[in-house]
Structure formats: structure tokens, C-alpha cells
Amino acid sequence: MQTQVTMSSRHYLSISHLSAASLFAERSTELEPKLTLGENESTNGLREHNACIVSTIMLSAAFLEATINEFFSDCAEDPYAKVATLPTCKLMAKLWSRGIPKTASYSILEKYEIALDLNEKQPFDKSSHPYQDVKLLVELRNALIHYEPETIQLPTGMLEEQRELHKFEKKFRGKFELNSLTGAGNAFYPDKMLGSGCARWAVKSAVALTDTFYSRFSLKPMYDHVRAQFSV
Q1: Rounded mean pLDDT, 13-41
Q2: Which one, of 191, 210, 206, lies nearest residue 56 by Cα?
Q3: What pLDDT score was predicted for residue 80?
Q4: Residue 7 has pLDDT above 60, yes or no
Q5: Where are the domains of the chain?
Q6: What's the per-residue H, E or C state across 179-195?
Q7: Phi, psi angles (nearest 5°) of residue 204
Q8: SS3 letters for 27-70?
Q9: pLDDT value at position 1?
């Protein structure tokens, strides 16, 4: 007589995304002061620096989407203890099984807003941090993934207030330290913008929004046990 034992496991990829994003942000911060633009010895380091920053931005956005997808999915499967006490748990499970808000028709922020609305929780303040910063983070991620080349004019002998600013310079200037490996001849986007300051800002903004979200439900975030390890 044979006995069959079924084992199941559940992996939360949001934690892996956050782990990688924080790791890349830390690495870009370590590299930036050690490198010199135009120096042969810095070539590989500059490649790694850029790769770390771009990866951080993409993974920070991926962390945001994985987190809210897991929140809905937890209602639909079993449900898991963390969300089982939610009065709308069954409703969220039913909507999720019907693809709401599972499909690409819903933006990352819309998914969070739907969860808050269904549970009659305080909505995000759309005019301030962290909502506004995450909105910019997703916009930057989309610009990198769906990149379209553009010619950026850098007029010389013109005061800053006289020149036309790139849309990202208008939106992002002052939010983080600029890439120290750039100078007057570099455009704000992507050169000056994509530095370690931007990488740290991306992770911080993503976690600030998910922290705010979980606090509305008086629940501990899924990543709470690794917060200190990831410096978030």
C-alpha cells in the first residue's frame, strides 16, 4: 500500500523584488564616489553603476505590483490568515477570480485604490507623498521600458530659468541627489537623473506607499521581518 503526500509551497516574489532593489541601490551608492567618468579603470564600474540604478527602478515598481497582487491572491487562496479577517475577503477573492484587478487594464496604483475602496479604508492623498512619488516612479519605469529616443538641446550661455526644461527635470528635480558622475555637458534625463540618489529614492518611495497601505488595514507588511536586513 502506497501513501501519497501532497506538499505545497507559496512564494512571495514581492520580497525577492524588494531584496534585489535594495541590494542594487546600495551597490550603486558604494560605486558612485569611487568612479571617474572617462577613466579606463572605471569602465566596468560605470557599466555596473548604470545597471544597478536601472534595475533598482524596475524592481521597485515590480515590488509594488507584486505586493498588491499577493494581497488579492491571498484572499482567493485558502485564504491566508493575514487577510482572512477582512470583511471583504470573499468579495476580493471573487473579483480576483474574475480578473479584477488582475489584468493589465489596471495600473499599479489603481489596484491599491480598489483594495482600499472595497474595504472602506482611508484613500491615499493623491496630492502628496507617497502617492505622487510612486506615480513618478511608475512613469520613469515605463519610460525606461518603452524607451523612445529623443534629442535634448543643451544651449550654452543661457540662464537656467531661460531654457526649456525636460519634462522629467520639471517633475524630479529636488527629489534626490543627482548623479555625481555627470557635469555641465550632460542632460538632466537620463544622465544626471539616473544616479544612486534616484535608486535610493525609488526603493524608499515604493516602501513608503506599501507601508501606508498596510497601516490602513492595521496589518504588518509581508516584508516586515526583513525590513532591517534590507535597510527599508
Answers
A1: 94
A2: 206
A3: 67
A4: no
A5: 13-149+161-217
A6: CCCCCCCCCHHHHHCCC
A7: -60, -40
A8: HHHHHHHHCCCCCHHHHHHHHHHHHHHHHHHHHHHHHHHHHHHH
A9: 64
- Is 199:56 a contact under the CB 8 Å cutoff? yes
Q: What stretches of 77-195 show up as alpha helix (H) in DSSP? A: 81-84, 89-97, 108-118, 131-145, 167-172
Q: Would the pLDDT of 110 be above 70?
A: yes
Burial of 201 (0-12, 13-18, 19+ CB in 10 A): buried
Q: 22: burial class by Cβ within 10 Å (0-12, 13-18, 19+)? A: buried
Q: Which of 5-19, 105-119, 140-154 has the lowest mean pLDDT?
A: 5-19
| Cβ 93 vs Cβ 83: under 8 Å | no
Cα gap 135→108, rounded to integer Å:
9
This prediction's pTM: 0.91
Predicted local distance difference test score (pLDDT) of residue 6: 59
Predicted pLDDT at 157? 61
The residues near 153 (Cβ < 8 Å, ≥ 6 apart) are: 164
| Nearest residue to 177 via CA among 22, 29, 23, 42 | 29
